[in-house]
Amino acid sequence: MVQKLVIYPDERVNIACTDVRSFNQTLWDVIEDIKDTMIKHNLDALAAIQIAYPYNIVLIKEADGSYSEYINPRIIGSYGKFDSIETTAYYPEITQIVPRAQRIKVIYEDRHGKPKSIDIDDEKYAATFQRKVDYLFGGTFLDKVSKAHRERVLEALKNNGLIPQVEICPTFSKKDYFVSFTDKLLFIMGLTLVSPFFNLSKETLNTLYTLDKFLLPIIFVLMIGFFFYAQYEAKKYSQCSSCQIGNNIGVIIKRFITGIVLAIGAYIILG
């Protein structure tokens, strides 16, 4: 049965969808509704939430006219980058350039609950899949722009005016410099642990131990700077996966623990 498309300003697309647990007639009816709606509106792809079903379901129309069904899809690998020219049924008036992975690896389940996987090498298909997955997590490509710019875009849409080009969430963040420099210091600390195997003098070993004690607080300072800069970017770009606080805390904890372990190792071996 054809369902009504969820179109801006309807905010139901902001709901994070839930996984499908029961693979039965109810699921198959939802899939048929998605397919019927795609046919009605001549769409190449549709997520269930775009017709107000809050489930992790994506349908994509294939070149031969068939429909591929992806239940509970997860992107577990992405490779390469390119600029994808995109439109979406939720914002009928908008065409934007969005950075996407050229190739992706996906795991999912079929309509009977059987686990599947697929490598998507076609850029257009990969971009379409990524755009639909955005919806499953409660977002669209406008959720990856600066808040001020997003407001200008939506205001223009509201007034049927000219839609400005979206300032997309950057694929590279300056906060990555903090991580890169920290990793180099951790590498140096790791090298000091193997220094006793090279028959170095006692004086040299003491110098290396002093260096380790000096590097550890620098690493802490870098990670604190990383956190605050990441928070700045999180405020500038909403729904940006590289800016989520959970990811940032994970990066910090991992390097804090590594630094402490290396410092303890240096104390035991060189102290």
From TrEMBL:
InterPro entries: Peptide_deformylase, Peptide_deformylase_sf
Domain of life: Bacteria
Pfam families reported for this sequence: Pep_deformylase
Keywords annotated in UniProt: Membrane, Transmembrane, Transmembrane helix
Membrane-spanning parts: 185-202, 214-232, 252-270
Family membership: Belongs to the polypeptide deformylase family.
Native source species: Sulfurovum zhangzhouensis
Gene3D superfamilies: Peptide deformylase
Protein name, UniProt field: Peptide deformylase
